[in-house]
Amino acid sequence: MTRRLNGSCLCGEVRYTVADEFQYALICHCSQCRRATGSAFKPFGGIERAKLEVTGGPIRIFGDVMTHDAHCKACGSLLYSIVEEGTRAHVTYGTLIDSPSLAPQAHIYVGSKASWDTLCDGLPQHQELP
């Protein structure tokens, strides 16, 4: 049986579960992820969309059904992004309550990272998406 991870937004209004079966885990430094999170980067795990289930709370969608960011309607926390024509979810690791089995594997879009951000964890760094 697959282990399920719990996650929630900052205020706790939105809750979700996701299978602990992430196929990749990356740390994105692109300008869009920096703006969406208010941080230097967005760590996330990629998984099939069907393996993510919102179990409670109001979601606000930015985008369309096939490609969007999902935020808590109350506090604004970025919970996940739907990508690849609606087939995959990029779950933000910062909203997970439980620890995923797969740790981040690489940094992506470091070519556009914030100038004040220094990467010193030893993970591979890619200028764009490998």
Keywords:
1 helix, seven-stranded mixed β-sheet, globular, 130 residues, mainly beta, three-stranded antiparallel β-sheet
Describe the structure.
It is globular, with a radius of gyration of 14 Å. It has 1 helix and 10 strands. Strands 6-7-8-9-4-3-10 form a 7-stranded mixed beta sheet. A 3-stranded antiparallel beta sheet has the order 1-2-5, with no helix packed on it. It has 130 residues and is mainly beta. A hairpin with a 5-residue loop joins strand 7 (68-72) and strand 8 (78-83). The mean pLDDT is 95. The termini are far apart.
How much is the average pLDDT? 95
Task: Tell me the series of helices and strands, N- to C-terminal.
Answer: EEEHEEEEEEE
Largest sheet: 7 strands, mixed
Classify the beta-strand content into a percent band: 35-45%
Distance between the termini: 32 Å
Class of secondary structure makeup: mainly beta
- Name the helicity range: under 10%
Strand order of the largest sheet: 6-7-8-9-4-3-10
The stretches of 5 or more residues where confidence is low (pLDDT under 50) are none
Number of strands: 10
Radius of gyration: 14 Å
- Give the overall silhouette: globular
What oligomeric state do the depicted chains represent? single chain
Helices, by number, come to 1
